[in-house]
Specification:
β1 and β2 form a beta hairpin. The chain starts with a helix and ends in a 7-residue tail after the last strand. It is elongated and about 90 Å long. Strands 1-2-3 form a three-stranded mixed beta sheet. Helix content is 71%, strand content 10%. The chain is mostly helical. The longest helix has 40 residues.
């Protein structure tokens, strides 16, 4: 069962890696096109989107590193493995989105308002809008692939690398639409305020995405419990064991995408000798692992319950 679980995790990693590589390739090409178009048109909205794509590209490099490093086997220094590295690199990605994308977008918006209106080149703006159209198609394709994998894998798609790609691509699609609206209104009205507003809106969008990703990564790095459904199911299973008199406490923590720690304090029924206690403990651990393969770290703190009256 552990071997099957490991193979399933490896297959999921390969699919996630392909999703990240597709997003990285799209963002590198888009970042170059947006930068050239933004410099030619002197468009703050397009330059904000260029910074957005550069930030996404660097973040996807972080995520590829996370996929590789988090699968390293446990060692003496890290006896529970390196699964939490995924959330560490996801946190770095969130910081990158905030600093490189959000802050630069705010800067572009404020600078545009400070400089005021100036003549715009219709040809350059048309080229910039065409670049954004291509970017919308590329980002949309990457997003569809990421969502397809999420729907295919369901709960297993809690992988922070995968979730970060979905968040980045979703923000990229919305950001491109905002930039297109800002550039179009600037070209139509001659007022740079529309583009400045678009840049500020893109900045706010990126700050929000960075906050959501950072908050999730923080929770997992601190140590988050399994979902309530799994917690109840594990507790019910322990309660059903004939040798267990009472489950005093059950503590859980996610150690990685497919690694969970379970620690239960249980009272055994009276009358069991030391050899029986050992056999019961091993049987319960094997039963938990068989039903929940991700529960690869199970600890039972066993105490013998006092005899109940009437027994």
């Amino acid at each position: 069962m552990n071997r099957e679980h490991g193979e399933r995790g490896a297959r999921s990693d390969r699919r996630t890696r392909l999703t990240v590589v597709v997003a990285l390739a799209a963002n590198l090409a888009i970042a170059a096109a947006k930068t050239v178009g933004g410099l030619l048109a002197a468009s703050p909205a397009l330059l904000s989107e260029a910074a957005h794509s550069v930030a996404d590209s660097l973040n996807e490099i972080f995520l590829l590193a996370a996929l590789r490093r988090s699968r390293r086997p446990a060692d003496r220094r890290h006896p529970f493995g390196y699964g939490k590295e995924r959330w560490f690199w996801s946190l770095l990605a969130a910081v990158g989105i905030f600093v490189m994308g959000g802050c630069f977008s705010f800067f572009q918006g404020i600078e545009a308002l400070r400089e005021g209106d100036r003549p715009v080149s219709t040809g350059h703006y048309a080229a910039g809008l065409a670049v954004l159209g291509v970017a919308l198609l590329a980002e949309g394709t990457s997003l569809v692939r990421a969502l397809y994998q999420y729907r295919r894998e369901g709960d297993e798609a809690r992988d922070p690398a995968h979730r970060t790609v979905i968040a980045e691509d979703s923000a990229a699609v919305v950001g491109v639409l905002i930039a297109m609206a800002g550039m179009g209104l600037h070209l139509f009205t001659g007022s740079v305020a529309w583009e400045a507003a678009a840049s500020l809106a893109i900045g706010l969008l990126l700050v929000y995405v960075a906050y959501r990703l950072g908050r999730e990564a923080r929770d997992f790095l601190i140590g988050v419990a399994v979902d309530p459904g799994m917690h109840r199911a594990v507790r019910d299973m322990l309660d059903e064991q004939p040798e267990i008199d009472n489950v005093a406490d059950l503590l859980t923590m996610r150690l990685g995408v497919d690694s969970v720690l379970l620690a239960a304090r249980i009272d055994l029924a009276p009358g069991l000798d030391s050899e029986e206690v050992e056999l019961v403990s091993e049987r319960i651990k094997a039963a938990v692992l068989d039903r929940w393969p991700e529960a690869d770290q199970v600890f039972l703190d066993i105490t013998e319950a006092p005899p109940h009256p009437g027994r």
